Amino acid sequence: MEHLTKRYGSHLAVDDISFEVEEGIVYGLLGPNGAGKSTTMNILTGYLSATSGTVSIDGHDILEEASAAKACVGYLPEQPPLYVDMTPREYLMFVAELKKVKRADRAAQVEQAMDRTGLAEMEHRLIKNLSKGYRQRVGLAAALLGSPKVIILDEPTVGLDPAQVIEIRSLIKELGKDHTVILSSHILSEVSTLCDKVLIIAKGKLVAQGTPEELAQRLTAGSSLNITALGEADAVMNAMLTVPGVSEVQITGQQNGETSATVQVPQGEDLRAAVSAALAAAGCPVLGLTTASMSLEDVFLQLTAQAGDEEAQEVLENQEEATLRPEDLDFVQNAVESGESGEKPWLENSEQPDEEELRQENASAQAEEEEADEK
Ligand SMILES: Nc1ncnc2c1ncn2[C@@H]1O[C@H](COP(=O)(O)OP(=O)(O)OP(=O)(O)O)[C@@H](O)[C@H]1O
Predict the structure, then answer these.
(1) Are 228 and 283 contained in the same domain?
(2) Domain that holds residue 253
(3) Which of 118-127, 153-162, 256-265, 289-298 comes out lowest in average pLDDT?
(4) Ligand 1 pocket check: which of 4, 14, 38, 300 to mutate, most ligand atoms within 8 Å of Cβ?
(5) Atom of ligand 1 nearest to the CA of 6
(6) Helices 296-306 + 311-319 axis angle, to 10
(7) Which of 293, 321, 337 is the last residue of a domain?
(8) Which residue's alpha carbon is nearest to atom 5 within ligand 1?
(9) CA pair distance 90, 106, nearest whole angstrom
């Protein structure tokens, strides 16, 4: 992709993105909602045209040699376009025909794709009766038909339950063995476990790329040391500030004569020995010392924050376990209090059903049940 730009009216969704994809590697496009991942993938697959810039797949320009370029790509959009009144096999045979797989090879290719995606036991069900996870598999199987070199997956695990997420992720890992895979995700842990290389996109710009480890290392402003030493905060802080290279010390706790602190360390330097020696010399023996390096999460936050993206914080927060927000706590508190006093303030504005209405509703429901039982 070279200098790819996409405008929707005056909105710049993709802003001069260039990158090259090596064969046989799993790439992750990582970015918060609205960063431009789907737009980028839609352009890559020839689904959308770019405002400017070029895409070339295995030497074929996506506009000038569209058929040849698209033949190299298997695409699973965020919402796979399935014909839900077909069975997986019927649908896949149809896709194989669209992809111009030779008639003699179609049945075998469909069989193989169903096999790889674990669809065999669902082959006679209508797609509309399949779970979201199985529908996703049908979409993946369709992407595999025609043996494309590159598989492009847009948010492949969105909307799946945890068991389905695990299955689809292991399937993607398998695909990565024989294909070049480009997937998009806003889930950091997914990208760092599945992908060999990560491209971080924020506000339509490519802000960083590298292996998850490289990103975590290369982009850190340095690591930090977490230290616990015996002594008062002032003494501990002053001792550490005497060490060349230490410019920032943050006291994080004080208890029973012990002080905990975090020290920022410049990139590439190891100050553990110097800091321990300085503390010992100041009469503050070190009780604990650990190095904390930046995780991919930190890097992501740092980069997207640089791009002025507040949604990045949301992405991280959404990955934490569900927690109660202050307004939820108020609601729970109200519910508990009013339960004690017998009031239901949260129902105050809702329409209260009339008692007679309720009685009639229940009676007719009971009559229907009895009738059903008799039948
Ligand atoms: N057809 C369209 N018309 C106008 N604006 C659009 C259109 N499609 C996307 N956008 C805008 O372009 C930006 C990038 O959208 P895109 O869907 O590529 O982001 P994304 O990173 O895939 O986000 P998500 O994870 O929510 O799918 C967003 O601000 C979006 O609102």
Answers:
(1) yes
(2) 221-293
(3) 289-298
(4) 38
(5) 12
(6) 160
(7) 293
(8) 8
(9) 11
